[in-house]
Amino acid sequence: MNDCQDKIKDLISEYISCAKYMCSLLKDNFDVQGEKLLRLWKLNLIPKEGSIANEIKYNFHGGGCYFEFENGTIDIDFGPDGRCDGVDPYKLYDFLETTNHKRHVDLLDKRRFFDLFNQLIEKKYIVCPGWYPNPSLYYLKMTSH
Fold first, then answer.
1. Domain residue extents for the chain
2. Which of 17, 48, 91, 122 is deepest in the core (most CB within 10 A)?
3. Contact 47, 32 (CB under 8 A)
4. Does the global pTM surpass 0.85?
């Protein structure tokens, strides 16, 4: 793997870590451990939007949730069983742009970014299993369902 491929792999790991952290904060805030956040919102058991720990804003949408925090934003889509470790390349690029990842500055060229993302697909580092409710999400290959 070249240096830029390693950087995009690191970015994917950072995105997944951030997504899991934000979902964990939301679950803690509403004391709903073990529950599926998307289901709770659609049943009106938690509000569509609001603020949680340290002024992190959240807003549910369609099949996911958008978070705005001091150092940037992350928009996640939920996978099966409430998973939040799926990656959409466009949302990953937005995460890169908004979160001030200075060590990933060479990924900011959009064409290069998507070329590198596609290389990871070709190398089967990430796979798109087509899982409901968001069948276009990519997951790390070592992640199983």
1. 3-140
2. 91
3. no
4. yes
Contact 61/76 with Cβ under 8 angstroms? no
Burial 109-129 (b: 16+ CB within 10 A, else e): eeeebeebbeebeeeebbeee
**Whole-angstrom Cα distance, residue 129 to residue 137?**
8
* Unique residue bearing structure tokens 């659609």: 42
The whole-angstrom distance between residue 6's C-alpha and the CA centroid of its chain comes to 18
Identify the residue whose tokens are 């998507």. Answer: 114
Q: Tell me how crowded residue 15 is: count the other CB atoms within 10 A of its CB.
A: 22
Q: How confident is the model at residue 56 (pLDDT cuts 50, 70, 90)?
A: very high
Among 121, 122, 127, residue whose Cα is nearest residue 142: 127
